[in-house]
What we know:
- By secondary structure, this protein is α/β, with parallel strands linked by helices.
- It has helices at about 10-25, 60-70, 85-90, 95-115, 120-125, 160-175, 200-210, 230-240, 260-270, 305-310, 315-330, 330-340, 340-350; strands at about 1-5, 25-30, 50-55, 75-80, 125-135, 180-185, 190, 215, 220-225, 245-250, 255, 285-290.
Amino acid sequence: MTILVTGGAGFIGSNFVLDWLAQSDETVVNLDKLTYAGNLQNLASLEGDARHVFVQGDIGDGALLKSLFARYRFRSVINFAAESHVDRSIAGPGAFIHTNIVGSFQLLEAARAHWGGLDALEKGAFRLLHVSTDEVYGSLGREEAPFAETHRYEPNSPYSASKAASDHLVRAYHHTYGLPVLTTNCSNNYGPYHFPEKLIPLCILNALAGKPLPIYGDGQQIRDWLYVTDHCTAIRRVLDAGRIGETYNVGGWNEKPNLDVVRGLCDILDQLAPRADRNSYAEQITFVADRPGHDSRYAIDAHKIERELGWRPAETFETGLRKTVQWYLGHEEWVRNVTSGAYRDWIAKQYA
């Protein structure tokens, strides 16, 4: 049997592919456009592995999708493919509309046609799992209850609005056509292979380079942090046992203000890679102008996935953050390769 993973060279997708093939011999066809955040070096350990078939392409390419479904007769699809950085969506929303909305539509159309042509047994086993975000729910006040699956959608950025649209399309294809879908909405992921435009990897690399650690506003924006391998475990569990048509929120039970996150990784770096002057990396923390429409708090209520499927994260924030820092310290070549000139130009512009 074969599964299709879209966006499988990105941060979460590549971790999922590596995790899947560490535990299964089922072939993965990995479709990724290889934009700036897609990196085949993430999958270098699978070179020559016949279980991993990489295809460079766009989920918005209907003809390509049709040919892949015809060739491999996938039994499941896991859709990670998305433009995902809020700051980039503010600077240029067009790519987010194309990939997150139009691309999701094309994938759903290809999956619907494929599913409709399967025999009864294959049809009953087929699943499409759509990976989404907690940002579709909007922003929470400090005292409000965390996002449950029944929370109304209130996206506040072009990124979250485009993901909300894709979620609605997935739901509609189930209710209109009967397509067997599942949706997961996750909190902020962190861990190995994270492209260093996001808070944790950006601050790790800036700290080691002696650069400022940029914190938006007062740094009190709260996020729920989920270690990426815990997320991968949750996705496998939902794929295996989730109820068709349902949404499952996946969170780490780790609400932290951004400033506390950066101070925590500075403490770990002080222990594992101390500065030459023996002062704390926390001295490099710098506050910059807040981004437009910055949501103040995200928090996930992950009781449903625990109650129905028995999943809970294995990592605490402290253990996951230490593993993340250790990974970046041990993968200097990956860091050098991913921090291209174009990336450095983007960072300089964004945090000026």
